[in-house]
Design a protein that fits this description.
Helix 3 links the parallel strand 3 (67-70) and strand 4. The radius of gyration is 34 Å and the shape is flat. The chain has a five-stranded mixed β-sheet, sandwiched between helices. A three-stranded mixed β-sheet has the order 12-16-17. Helix 3 (80-92) runs antiparallel to helix 4, helix 3 (80-92) packs across helix 10 and helix 6 crosses helix 7. It folds into three domains: 4-126, Rossmann fold (3-Layer(aba) Sandwich); 156-256, Hect, E3 ligase catalytic domain fold (Alpha-Beta Complex), CATH 3.90.1750; 335-445. Helices cover 50% and strands 18% of the residues. The protein contains twelve helices and 17 strands. The two termini are 68 Å apart. The protein is an alpha/beta fold.
């Protein structure tokens, strides 16, 4: 009994995959197949994480398919080596192949397989040329000041692929810019107009509102989408909503915006533990000395536990003692104790495994060519490919292991050097927030044994 599969793929949602499926189903019925299983992907032919394609290969491997129908062989993959490997799998599992543009393909016939491989190469080359033509055309359109595609920004609508001002939305854009310059916060504006906070910022920084276009913000490399933080700004032919002086003032104000600093930050915040295990908090102690009112910063325990007694400790005295203790520890660190010979050995081992892993794809290509030229039996090819798969996993584990070891040793050395370099600066620092950040980087906790004795638990 024939177990028939149909596989269809399109690169994007904009392409109508249902048309491909319909044509393949019609071909299946014409060939006398009434039952079949459909596999479909919306992904690039270069992508290696196509779920349906992977499932198709698994089902073929499991012997659940013996007839495969395609629109054309390039729908399988754009990768030449993957194309050869897939055809090898079809031969091993004795799967018959039918494409709508070439009919039945005899996988055991050298002329048929050569022609199929050649057509796949030509399809892949044409795909790359088409992508370049599209990119060049989009660049030409953008440099002529025209919208290159995608939804229109808020404040505009698309008419014959050109940006045209939407009066109602444009009025909201003007209000956002004006209110922001008057001192309104972005969160206030997002609530006022029902936008997400991030959307308000995107509106405020978008040069499209002064008649410009962003170019080269989005780029695709190796089929991956890359968003650049910097881009080229081109003159557009569309009408501006905001004048340039207003836009520039908004950009300056955005640069000057700073996050609010918490006012309750103090030197030993969240670091001190009382004898009872509770946190110590800072208070301002007021007292009279020689007839004058004085203030001092002290740390106290809020616990109502009556079984321990902890009066208080002055922040200035505690800071002095902590710095003295840290200085003794930090300045005693010796970066020369790190075994550099061991480091070199680790790097040599890492480079060796990286070199071996890099060589595997080339070996797979050689095997594929030998199989096509009948220099290898399919059984031997299958066994060797399984060995390569195991070697890949082995090399990957070794590379990960050695990389972690090297990074760990480098981090230890760097941390010690940095601590020594900046400790003298920290001793002179007066900003409580900066001191608190530094202490939290290296101290896990400071635990008190009584009112004057404490233990510092370091993170290293």
């Amino acid at each position: 009994m024939d177990k028939v599969a149909i596989y269809c793929r399109e690169s994007t949602e904009r392409q109508d995959i249902s048309t491909l499926i319909s044509m393949c189903e019609k071909a299946a019925h014409d060939l006398g197949f009434d039952t079949y299983k459909i596999y479909k992907d919306i992904k690039s032919g270069y992508s290696k994480d196509r779920e349906e394609y992977s499932q198709l290969k698994n089902d073929i491997q499991a012997g659940e398919i013996n007839v495969l129908i395609l629109y054309e062989s390039s729908r399988l993959t754009r990768d030449e080596i993957e194309h050869h490997l897939f055809f090898a799998l079809l031969r091993i599992k004795e799967v018959r192949l039918y494409t709508l543009n070439h009919g039945w393909i005899d996988l055991n016939n050298e002329d048929d397989t050569f022609m199929s491989s050649l057509l796949n190469l030509l399809d892949a080359r044409e795909g790359r040329k088409g992508a370049k033509r599209t990119k060049d055309r989009m660049e030409e359109i953008a440099r002529n000041g025209r919208w290159t595609g995608g939804p229109a920004p808020f404040g505009y609508r698309l008419v014959n692929k050109e940006l045209v001002v939407d009066p109602a939305e444009a009025e909201i854009v003007k209000q956002i810019f004006q209110l922001f310059l008057e001192g309104k916060k972005r969160q206030t504006l997002s609530t006022l107009f029902g936008f997400e906070g991030k959307r308000v910022r995107r509106i405020l920084i978008n040069p499209v509102y002064v008649g410009k276009l962003k170019f080269h913000q989005i780029e695709y490399k190796n089929k991956k989408r890359i968003t650049h933080k910097e881009w080229e700004v081109l003159d557009g032919i569309h009408e501006a909503i905001i004048d340039e002086p207003t836009f520039n003032l908004v950009q300056n104000r955005l640069k000057l915006e700073k996050r609010e600093v918490k006012r309750d930050t103090y030197i030993f915040k969240d670091l001190l533990k009382c004898v009872c295990g509770a946190k110590l908090y800072r208070y301002t102690s007021v007292y009279t000395y020689n007839g004058q009112h004085k203030e001092s910063l002290v740390y106290k325990c809020n616990s109502k536990d009556t079984y321990h007694r902890f009066n208080s400790i002055l922040e200035s005295e505690l800071l002095k003692q902590v710095l003295e203790t840290l200085e003794e520890v930090i300045l005693s660190l010796n970066v020369n104790d790190i075994d550099t010979e061991s480091d070199n050995s680790l790097v040599e081992q890492l480079n060796y495994y990286k070199k071996e892993a890099t060589a595997l794809p080339g070996k797979e290509k050689v095997l594929a060519r030998q199989l096509m030229n009948n220099l290898l039996t399919e059984e031997t090819f299958k066994e060797l490919m399984l060995e390569f798969k195991e070697q890949k996993e082995f090399f990957k584990n070794k590379i990960d292991s050695y990389s972690k070891l090297i990074k760990s040793k480098e981090a230890k050395k760097n941390n010690q050097e940095i601590l020594k370099k900046y400790f003298n600066k920290i001793k002179k620092e007066k900003d409580p927030e900066k001191l608190n950040i530094f202490f939290k980087m290296i101290i896990d906790s400071i635990e008190f044994a009584n009112d004057y004795r404490f233990y510092i638990h370091l993170k290293f």
